[in-house]
Design brief:
alpha+beta, 3-stranded antiparallel β-sheet, 94 residues, 3 helices
Length: 94
């Protein structure tokens, strides 16, 4: 096996620094969960809270339930310990 190295030139037009995509200290995520009923919105919220807690041991969740005529929304704010946990959570939601 040959252990020589070679020069490699890469010409990329659309490059970003990782700090432009993942900002250090960006640990907050705000979501709005909509349901046809309050129970449906609460069930979706419970699923998201379980996911967040499986990713982070100390994820703090604040939520506000808003009831409308026949439907409900939950405004939720997830606060993770670090940016990586938030990013992992967002990827699971896709």
């Amino acid at each position: 096996m040959d252990n020589t190295t070679a020069e490699l030139e890469v010409d990329a037009d659309h490059c970003l620094e990782i700090g432009q995509v993942i900002a250090p200290g960006d640990t907050h995520l705000e979501l709005t969960i909509k349901g046809d009923t309050e129970q449906q919105a609460n069930d979706q919220m419970a699923t998201m809270e379980a996911l967040a807690n499986s990713i982070s041991d100390h994820c703090q969740v604040k939520k506000t339930v808003n009831l409308h005529q026949g439907s409900a929304t939950i405004d939720a704010m997830f606060d993770f310990d670090c940016t990586a946990e938030k990013l992992i959570f967002e990827l699971y939601l896709r």
